[in-house]
Design goal:
heterodimer, A: 114 residues, mainly beta, seven-stranded mixed beta sheet, four-stranded antiparallel beta sheet, B: 114 residues, five-stranded antiparallel beta sheet, 11 strands, 0% helix, 55% strand
Chain lengths: 114, 114
């Protein structure tokens, strides 16, 4: 089954404790991205990757890092989480960056930073 | 600046009627526009894509129109059912600035009353 998986689905952590949210897709997609979704603000892109070893900042990259060492995986790293990073996070992938291709979204990771 | 606007108020429709959702945009010249459905706490799911040279696209009970002169897309659900209740997002390709890929509107929450 074609899918994007994220882990963990739920995470409660404390300020400053480094964490990684994993994302994996099994569709051989070139393009992957991370979004955060907050009430009243909608989906906002954090980082994206057009292919292996190619990553770039989205609209709200501060406080986040990503890597793309393999085509299927695109982890999101919070080196020193802060309470304003409490949010619902989605990983997405598509065949390419061309907007004619639909994006497939993961199930989401709900992060709470206390 | 580029903007995508969807009606932020919830839309209440009686079961069996046609629901019509609006997506307006400014300062874009999109080649494509996409519509997604999002259920609470879950990732968006792709529904339809319409190209700039297409006036209308249909899929089962769904219909999308795209007016590049008005800079507007309309999303219709005919013979609506309570199971159609969800948030519907429109998305356009972002150009310029830091982000790449799709930029999403904030969504319209649709409620179908039995």
């Amino acid at each position: 089954e074609a899918q994007v998986t994220q882990n963990p689905r739920y995470l409660i952590t404390v300020t400053g404790k480094k964490l990684t949210v994993t994302c994996s897709q099994n569709m051989n997609h070139e393009y992957m991205s991370w979004y955060r979704q907050d009430p009243g603000l909608g989906l906002r892109q954090i980082y994206y990757s057009m292919n292996v070893e190619v990553t770039d900042k989205g609209d709200v990259p501060e406080g986040y890092k990503v890597s793309r060492k393999e085509k299927r995986n695109f982890p999101l790293i919070l080196e020193s989480p802060s309470p304003n990073q409490t949010s619902l996070y989605f990983c997405a992938s598509s065949l390419s960056r061309d907007s004619s291709y639909e994006q497939y979204f993961g199930p989401g990771t709900r992060l709470t930073v206390t | 600046s580029q903007k995508i606007e969807q009606n932020s108020e919830a839309l209440n429709i009686q079961e069996g009627k046609t629901a019509t959702l609006t997506c307006n945009y400014t300062n874009y010249s999109p080649a494509y526009l996409q519509w997604y459905r999002q259920d609470p706490g879950r990732g968006p799911v792709f529904l339809l894509l319409i190209r700039e040279n297409e006036k209308e696209k249909r899929k089962e009970r769904l219909k999308v129109t795209f007016d590049t002169t008005l800079k507007q897309s309309l999303f219709h659900i005919t013979a609506s059912q309570p199971a159609d209740s969800a948030t519907y997002l429109c998305a356009l390709r972002h150009s310029g600035g830091g982000a790449d890929g799709l930029t999403f509107g904030k969504g319209t929450h649709l409620i179908i009353q039995p």
